[in-house]
Design goal:
two-stranded antiparallel sheet, Four Helix Bundle (Hemerythrin (Met), subunit A), 194 residues, mainly alpha
Length: 194
């Protein structure tokens, strides 16, 4: 059985695009205390954690929430290994599966929400890396529209662990991307100099 997950593919492609555009891996990001290298390590670690929960295989080498900022491999190599392992793991999950093991509370979700959580993680960190580099967002409003219900389903318990900042109030004129970013505690107008 091979299951295709278009939302996950789009989010993974967004992260690949963002990684390719980063020129300063020591530069600031919307994740206030993390450099671009740390965001990449975190994002890769999260994808590996999803793969580990799904397959029982190896997970990330370290704590994705305490990234070192030292890249031992080429950034594209680090990202690709993690994205490939996560995509391969999700390809083995039936679309109608319930209680799929995931690394976010409650640690078992319906497949559609679980794969959406994995996509959300990749997509939002794609945005983090892109805006940190001054590049356009590879996280589109259409993809954000698909991910917002997933975010609303999983994010609140994660805030207690510091995984997301408090939600910001929506603003008049917000598109779907801005709504998602604000819900995840990010300012859509963030720039490296802000």
């Amino acid at each position: 059985m091979t299951t295709t997950w278009p939302t996950l593919t789009q989010a993974h492609d967004a992260l690949r695009t963002a990684v390719a555009g980063v020129r300063d891996w020591d530069g600031p990001t919307p994740c206030a205390q993390w450099t671009a290298a740390q965001v990449l390590q975190h994002a890769a670690g999260d994808q590996l954690a999803y793969a580990m929960f799904l397959t029982g295989g190896p997970g990330p080498d370290g704590d994705p929430f305490a990234p070192s900022g030292t890249l031992d491999d080429a950034p594209a190599t680090l990202a690709e290994e993690a994205l490939t392992r996560a995509a391969d793991a999700w390809a083995g999950v039936a679309a109608d599966a319930q209680d799929v093991p995931v690394p976010v509370p409650p640690n078992a979700l319906p497949a559609e929400i679980g794969v959406g959580a994995c996509a959300l993680d990749a997509g939002v960190h794609a945005w983090d890396l892109a805006v940190a580099s001054g590049a356009p967002s590879p996280l589109t409003a259409d993809l954000a529209r698909e991910l917002l219900p997933v975010a609303r389903a999983i994010v609140e318990p994660l805030r207690a662990y510091g995984a997301y900042a408090p939600a910001l109030d929506p603003q008049p004129g917000d598109d779907d991307l801005a709504l998602l970013l604000r819900y995840l505690g990010r300012r859509p107008d963030w720039t490296p100099s802000a």
